[in-house]
Design goal:
The chain is built from four helices and no strands. It is mainly alpha-helical. It has one domain: Non-ribosomal Peptide Synthetase Peptidyl Carrier Protein, Chain A. Helix 1 runs antiparallel to helix 2. It starts with a helix and ends in a 5-residue tail after the last helix.
Amino acid sequence: MSPRLQQIFARVFKVAPESIDADSGPHTIPAWDSAGHLNLILQLEKEFGVTFSEDEVVDLIGVREIVEALQRHGVSL
């Protein structure tokens, strides 16, 4: 897990960076609700200079899916 990515999750959801791993998602992070999800997506787009499609946003339901989507957009983690 990229420390940069962990920091983004930690900042958005106000959790310890080391608590974020590939299996993290709404089921493990209580603050990951619909508003938190949108905030996360906006922060990821800003930080990595990418734009996710509406379809992608709906499918980004966990850290693993987000990492895969960022890699598809050419982001090296």
